[in-house]
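Researcher: Please predict.
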Amino acid sequence: MDDGITFTEPLAALPVVETRRWTRDNRWPEGIIDPDRYPEIAIARTDGEMEEVGRLRYALFVERDGKRYAHADHTNKVFLEPIDKISLNFVARARDKCAVAVRATWAHDTIVDPHLEQVVAHADLAPEVLDTVIVHSRLVVRRSMSARGLLPVLFQSMFRGARMANARFCLAATRSELIPLFERFGFCQLDRRRPYFDEVAGWMNVLLLDLHDRERLTKSESPFVAVYDEFDPRT
């Protein structure tokens, strides 16, 4: 996905909206979110919306878990990263607050982020496949029943967005205790892949989702099946 963009330090300094204006290109198609079907879900597009995501990340990753990420802003208690500028951040709201969020990034864009680049390297997928791979990361969920209840619709929007972008596979890296959550949605652990060590997050497992494998989605009783059938109706 060589689009001629040079990643330099000013990219990180530009406001989200301003940066998106000139990195939007053809990475993400319009209409990824279906507001009629998923009214709770949106894409964070403004500085204020991204800051809200960053505050939730900071509260969970930095304050709660004690992680020391390089781009954590301890003064304002916001955790955003340069890669956010060219990614999509899916957000679910509850009680007028960002309750759940997850980030989607094309695999080839991860070269500017050491954490995501490590995920792609550990997956060790064939080079010809990488153009079709999206990496999901920075999943954050508030500690409330209402927030956890939004996970299925957030993930369905994530799946729909990947299909609309013509992706074939999704990758995610997670701690061992969260593997069952991802498996319920149809993700699977890569064969013969041991956990890898991220210097900040610790030991992580790489999971793969085949966006075109309806059999696996059905077997895991994934909420993605209904979305899958929108794109590939059964005859």
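Model: Confidence is low (pLDDT under 50) at residues 1-14, 17-24.
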